[in-house]
Amino acid sequence: MSRESEHPVEHLVVIGVGLIGGSIARALKHEGFVGRVTGVGRSRENLDRARELGIIDHWSHNIAEAVHDADMVVVAVPMGAYDRLFAELAKVLPENAVVTDAGSTKQHAIDVAEKHLSDSSRFIPAHPIAGTEQSGAEASFAELFEDRLCILTPAENADPESLAIVNAMWEATKSRVVQMDAKRHDDFLASVSHLPHLAAFALVNAVRKQGDEEHDPFQFAAGGFRDFTRIASSSPEMWRDIALSNSEALASNIDALQAELAELKLALESGDGEMLLQSFSAAKKARDEWLEKHGGSL
């Protein structure tokens, strides 16, 4: 970090100026944490709009041009782009630059960083538990991370100074920052985030396939279906990448869900109302306790 700057980070580069990357830039600029922000991305239209909105100060399609004097780099791109991006970053990243990210799968991020970066100790993985179904810079807002959990999963060789500045960065977004082992993070998120998205996609597809020329099953859907399947409107490409990057933990959680559904199916086939009642009651109790303890969100 620049010792002469009035900001903790003088030059921040955000690679991927979408909902997450744009919101990070907005929040940090609002708090005076950064001096200037350079955005990197593929869409000129999105980057121009981000500059018009004051989210970024400059932009470039060229990573080398953008990061040559960066103090910190935030990677906010789909997990599927990590390998290519880190390979490119490794060639041009300034020696003292700190790198963090906002990806949903942390062991994969660490593996890619260690594979490509000459000094992976300055990479501090992070996962802000926040988002909407919207995308692009225009969807971003500074309050996105406010009072939301942000999980840091530093590797064993993490540089303490880099960890401290990344921790401070996420705190500046008003996130509640915690640290966790990367594999433990991936196991937890497979069950409470990744599996629900796959279940929502699967349910919509199951209903879609029931349609025929006479009836569209979606015309009968109401609030319950809308609420349960809201996240099926998320980016298919992004969730493909997340699923593949956390495939082992996710497959295990799919097995667990299928086992629960199999028990419910057996109860239906045998007319076992008591089993259904016990299962539904246990789920209601667990969810009500979650709402009471955590307010229904991380």
The CATH architecture classification of the largest domain is: 3-Layer(aba) Sandwich
Tally of alpha and pi helices: 11
Distance between the termini: 30 Å
Please count the beta strands (DSSP E, at least 2 residues each): 9
What can you see in these coordinates?
By secondary structure, this protein is an alpha/beta fold. It folds into 2 domains: 9-180, NAD(P)-binding Rossmann-like Domain (Rossmann fold, 3-Layer(aba) Sandwich), CATH 3.40.50; 184-294, 6-phosphogluconate dehydrogenase C-terminal like domain (6-phosphogluconate dehydrogenase C-terminal fold, Orthogonal Bundle), CATH 1.10.3660.10. Helix content is 50%, strand content 13%. It has a 6-stranded parallel sheet with strand order 3-2-1-4-5-6, with helices on both faces. A 3-stranded mixed sheet has the order 7-8-9, with helices on one face. The relative contact order is 0.11.
